[in-house]
Structure formats: structure tokens, C-alpha cells
Amino acid sequence: QVQLVESGGGLVQAGGSLRLSCVASGRIFSINYMGWYRQAPGKQRELVTTITSVGVTNYADSVKGRFIISRDDAKNTVYLQMNSLEPEDTAVYYCNVGVSNWYEASLRHYDYWGQGTQVTVAS
Fold it and tell me: Residue 122: is its pLDDT beyond 90?
């Protein structure tokens, strides 16, 4: 019912920048939060950053001061601006969106994930 399409990944040199986009489409009553996770080979998926419906943001310590999350409510799109990229940032980045949707007469929460986009930072 809800689809997330990511774009913007690629290969970049250390110190460079990338901007990821994630567009949510389908039936959405309201968005509770949007965020980004990443997973490097052999490691657990970790939270990178989130933004709530009221604009409160949260960042992992490893990216604080370098990454910026933002959203465009009219387009149901969340962005991740990544600056001063380091080789340690190399991972598959996943968009995550939590929505509220009606199920019969109840409003319920649903969690959706994007397909992932590869970010590779070369030294």
C-alpha cells in the first residue's frame, strides 16, 4: 500500500558529499516519523537519523554535525544530506517511514522500508 523509493547513492571520495532522497507514495493518512538507517557488510543495521512529524531530529553520534535530515511534506519526501563523508560511512542506506493509516474503524501504525541505496566512500 505504501512504497518507498530511494535514490542518490553512489561512489564518492572522502570529504565529499551526497544527497539521498526517499519518496513515499500510496495511501497515507499521516506520517509519524521518517528516518535513515544504514548497514555495512557484516554489521547490524544502525540508526543514522530520524525526524518526527513535529520536526524533532535525532542523529547518531557518528554522523552528528556532518549529516542533515530534512523533509518536504507536500511531496512525502525525506532527504539525507551527507557532508564530509568518511570511509566508515560506507554502507547500504535504508529509508524508514512510520505512518498512521485507517484499518476499518481504527487508526493503526505501520512501518515501511525503502529498497536501500549503496553509498561507498573511497579513501
Answer: yes
